[in-house]
């Protein structure tokens, strides 16, 4: 079962990337982003892409320029996540054959991102819009466009977001923070996966 969860590993170091990545994948989280404001992010992406590229989708977050897109691809990344919706970054990502997940807060940004070729949308910060705001946006967005809630969505409210139309989630410090061991990340990941699975089952009932 593939779960629509992106693990956001802000602050991860290359020397721990493979161990943390393995813990997440074993727990059932198979999409991982390394934000580019982490230490040596392209090294971490490269290590995880080499180790897990056949089992997981590895890429970068906080991608702001076309040059960064190219470096993500060169490192073996397959997904680009941004806090904003820059058409140049989206187009460069799509041209490089990678998934593009730009951050949006408004219908105007959402439609501009889709016109540029975005794979899906990252509702960010989700806490500022809330499930009610997502419901309103989903009423006008194309029904097949996946929207992931990031920043304010977690184990305690997955069900509420899913009912509002969220297709998935980006999870940061609830999964990983600098200093956590791989065992601690594994425990957190299992708890997140269990809550996600329960929410999905509840929504389908």
TrEMBL record:
Gene3D superfamilies: Aldolase class I. PROSITE patterns: ALDOLASE_KDPG_KHG_2 (PS00160). The keyword Lyase applies. Pathway: Carbohydrate acid metabolism. Keywords: Carbohydrate metabolism, Lyase. One of its GO terms (molecular function) is lyase activity. Belongs to the KHG/KDPG aldolase family. Homotrimer. This is 2-keto-3-deoxy-phosphogalactonate aldolase. It comes from Wenxinia saemankumensis. The lineage of its organism: Bacteria, Pseudomonadati, Pseudomonadota, Alphaproteobacteria, Rhodobacterales.
């Amino acid at each position: 079962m593939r779960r629509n969860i992106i693990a956001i590993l802000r602050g991860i170091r290359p020397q721990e990337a493979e161990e943390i990545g393995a813990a997440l994948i074993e727990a059932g989280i198979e999409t991982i982003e390394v934000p580019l404001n982490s230490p040596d992010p392209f090294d971490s992406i490269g290590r995880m892409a080499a180790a897990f590229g056949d089992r997981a989708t590895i890429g970068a977050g906080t991608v702001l320029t076309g040059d960064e897109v190219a470096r993500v691809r060169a490192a073996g990344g397959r997904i680009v996540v941004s806090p904003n919706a820059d058409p140049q970054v989206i187009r460069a990502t799509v041209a490089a054959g990678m998934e593009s997940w730009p951050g949006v807060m408004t219908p105007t940004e959402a439609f501009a991102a889709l016109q540029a070729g975005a794979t899906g949308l990252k509702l960010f910060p989700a806490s500022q819009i809330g499930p009610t705001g997502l419901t309103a946006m989903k009423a006008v967005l194309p029904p097949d466009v996946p929207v992931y809630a990031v920043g304010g969505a977690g184990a305690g409210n997955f069900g509420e977001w899913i009912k509002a139309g969220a297709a998935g989630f980006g999870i940061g410090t609830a999964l990983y923070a600098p200093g956590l061991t791989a065992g601690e990340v594994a425990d957190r990941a299992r708890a997140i996966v269990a809550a996600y699975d329960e929410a999905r089952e509840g929504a389908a009932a």
